[in-house]
Amino acid sequence: MSLTINIYYKGENGSAKEFAKEMIEKGIVEQIRKEKGNEKYEYFYPHDDLETVLLIDRWESSTALDLHHKSPMMMQIAKLRDKYNLKMKVEQYTEISKENHDFETVIRQRTATRKFSDKKVEIEKINKILEAARLAPTAKNLQPQKILVANTLESLNKLDKVTPCRYNAQTVLIVCSDKSIAWKKEDYSTYEMDACIVATHMMLEATNIGIDNIWIEMFDKEKLKEEFNLEDNIEPICLLLIGYKAADCKENPLHNKRKELSDLVKFI
Ligand SMILES: Cc1cc2nc3c(=O)[nH]c(=O)nc-3n(C[C@H](O)[C@H](O)[C@H](O)COP(=O)(O)O)c2cc1C
After folding, report:
1. How many domains would you assign to the chain?
2. What is the helix (H) or strand (E) element at residue 236, kind and residue range?
3. How remote is the CA of residue 171 from the centroid of ligand 1, in Å?
4. Mean pLDDT across the chain
5. 252 lines ligand 1 (CB under 6 A)
6. Does residue 123 sit within a domain?
7. Strand order through the sheet with 52-59
8. In a domain, 83, yes or no
9. Could you give the CA distance from residue 54 to residue 42 in angstroms, rounded to a whole number?
10. Running DSSP on this structure, what letter comes out for residue 116?
11. Residues 87 and 212 in one domain
12. For ligand 1, what atom is nearest to the CA of residue 111?
């Protein structure tokens, strides 16, 4: 998933052009182009506006952009911007990269994220993830899933009372199942199984569209029901944290520790 940023620098008497010229002449532009994950860094001069210069930069991921924001270059850019007394208008676009739509890539890329940045997941992406929940298979197609989207400060604070594992995620999907709807077979119900499939669908769709995530089991279910006033028949099954990895998020050491197929499978 790559990110494109358009920045319109506006200044009087051609100062925006002077700024761009100095950025290029000082070699700052060249250095930024060499930063990890930079795909484009280009100044344009709109025909119809002599006071504005447009910078288009593109980054291969939000992590690369976060690193760029913390790089020493940013100080130099800020100084120059102040020197020329420029105003800025910023637009940001996210492109979902085509490669991620390959299922093989998705299942290999998915990994548990335990440190999220403050950046919020865009509503279109949350909706896309929720659509994957809607399309998930459930026993007898009874669709007992109920998903609570916690992304306000109030609901995140409530969640912090029920789990030690929020990891700064700014959006948490509380995956629940309605026991009164799910298929009951004698003394057994598929309510939990259905919700797990729903959560798995969302987890994989999140990875597919470049949203980092983790499945959380460690939370107090009774307390969560109380905090969010859930009815008796609504059972919270798991939390799915979604967001963007923090720049210093460490890799999950367990991720590559998978057993051999021969330990897991037996042809009979
Ligand atoms: C059912 C389930 C429950 C989990 N619960 C937690 C949890 O409560 N806290 C946590 O930090 N990670 C939790 N995880 C994440 C796992 O530890 C992680 O998926 C596992 O180590 C494999 O690593 P990977 O996801 O990076 O491949 C859970 C994962 C699953 C599937």
Report:
1. 2
2. strand 234-243
3. 17
4. 93
5. yes
6. yes
7. 38-44, 52-59, 2-10, 87-95
8. yes
9. 8
10. B
11. no
12. 26
Cβ(180) to ligand 1 under 6 A? no
What separation in Å is there between the alpha carbon of 215 and the centre of ligand 1?
A: 6
* Atom 23 in ligand 1: residue holding the nearest Cα: 255
Same domain, 153 and 221: yes
Question: Does residue 86 share a domain with residue 119?
Answer: no
Distance 208 CA to ligand 1 centre (A): 18
Residues 70, 124 within the same domain: no
255 lines ligand 1 (CB under 6 A): yes
Both 216 and 142 in one domain: the answer is yes
Residues 55 and 12 in one domain: yes
Any idea which residue has 């930024």 for tokens? Answer: 32
Distance CA 203, CA 139 (A): 20
Same domain flag for 88 and 30: yes
CA of 252 to the centre of ligand 1 (A): 9
What dihedral angle (degrees, nearest 10) is formed by the CA atoms of 124, 109, 101, 119?
20
Tens digit of each residue's pLDDT (9 = 90 or more) over 93-143: 877 554 456 898 899 889 999 999 999 999 889 999 999 999 999 999 999
Q: What confidence tens digit (pLDDT) does each residue in 164-177 have?
A: 999 999 999 999 99
pTM of the entire structure? 0.68
The answer to the question of residue 254 being in a domain is: no
Pick the atom of ligand 1 nearest to 214's CA.
15
The CB density around residue 87, as the number of other CB atoms within 10 Å, is 13
Q: How far is the CA of 214 from the centre of ligand 1 (A)?
A: 7
- The domain containing residue 151 runs over which residues? 103-243
Q: Is 215 a pocket residue for ligand 1 (Cβ < 6 Å)?
A: yes
Note whether residue 69 is domain-resident.
yes
Ligand 1 site, residue 112, Cβ cutoff 6 A: yes
